[in-house]
Amino acid sequence: MKYLWICLLAITFIFTPFTTNAAINDQPKAAFTRYHSLWLFDGKEERVLHENINVGKFSWSFDGKWLVYEARQIDKESEEPEIWLYNTETNSSTKLKIVGHDPLWNPVDHTFAFLTGSILCVVELSSGTPIIHQLTGGVSNFTWDGNGVNLIASASAALFPDGWSHPRLYEVHWGIEKEEHEMDVKVTPLHTIGSPLKYEDISILSVDVENFSWSHDGKSLAMVVAPTASWSADSNMLSVYVKENKLFIPLGEILLDPKWIKWAPTKPLLASIQGGGRMTGGVKNKVLTTSTIIPNYKKTHTPKGFADVDFDWVDDERIVVARGRETSDSTERFNSSLYLVDLKEKKDQKVSETPDGYSDGEPVVLRKGASLAWVREDADGRRHIWWSKSDGTDGRMLVENVFDVVWFGK
After folding, report:
1. Mean pLDDT in each 10-residue stretch from start to end of the chain (410 residues)?
2. Cα separation of 248 and 271, whole Å?
3. Quick one: which of 116, 107, 160, 150 has its CA closest to 134?
4. Closest CA to 72 of 41, 92, 40, 50
């Protein structure tokens, strides 16, 4: 009898589906914008969180409890935005006491950083009430380190009578003195970026640094070095700073889109969409590229005559990319479909059946590779959220008429 029970349990285990292959109805939640308002989709229904505002950047805390977002009053576009917090557990909103921009969550706890002017600030939420700490000034952009302990800040170059200075990277250490209840802040220089910055036959003036992205092991920091504002619309330099070796390595030309730089989930392999030239005069010369850092090796994955515009990693060997035929001028609409690029097998497979005149883009891989979400733009320019299994099957529309979307549940 004991042997029979063991056999039955073994059979049950073998034929029981794994939880990672959960039903397609188990959607993560998403925040999205629509017509001067911020909305939440919880997997079943959508509801408005804040109306009559122009929403800037917004993002989820590591556990999905909090949503932080920039908000400008519709009639006050010239002013610096307000920063708001939405608590999904209490369904309540809180506005910070000072204005700011570029809020960014700590990857491991309920703190986030933001800039007010050029002053870097950190907000603590451990008590449920926002507590703001001002750390240091002169900051143009920043990111958290991979452990959520310190911050990496950049200072842009400045124009002097004898020419431009160079942008710099710093590590900002901060903590609270328990006895005095005051901030203890230390700023350590990391690297001064050379100028001009060169890669093969490409050369740019180094003025600012932005769009930071850490490798999974926290050893390499990808970023974009940008020239002056008008120049940066056409050409910037993707680069990587290797902290352990103190190396700064240019990797190629890129536009200023933070979604175009992503590390593989567990390997030191960087994917990016490289190529110069703004996309107002046609979409061309934008190629999906993977790069190892040490040694530095680069490979492109876009077929000739096509352009790639968005992507996300499925795992260390597969990437979902939005790909379409190149266009030569602004009068010709660029339409893309989703393709699965297998780096190991060196083959591509179309995964979305995009109707004629429509375009599929902004793919996001969710639930550890089990599901795929994207934005489908119809022939009239309206954008809708679609959802499927990771191979593109069982696709269906979830939400209509959205502008920007940020998912929680990767």
Report:
1. 38 34 59 97 94 96 96 83 96 96 96 97 90 96 94 96 94 74 86 96 96 95 95 96 94 97 97 94 94 94 97 97 94 95 94 95 92 96 95 93 92
2. 17
3. 116
4. 50
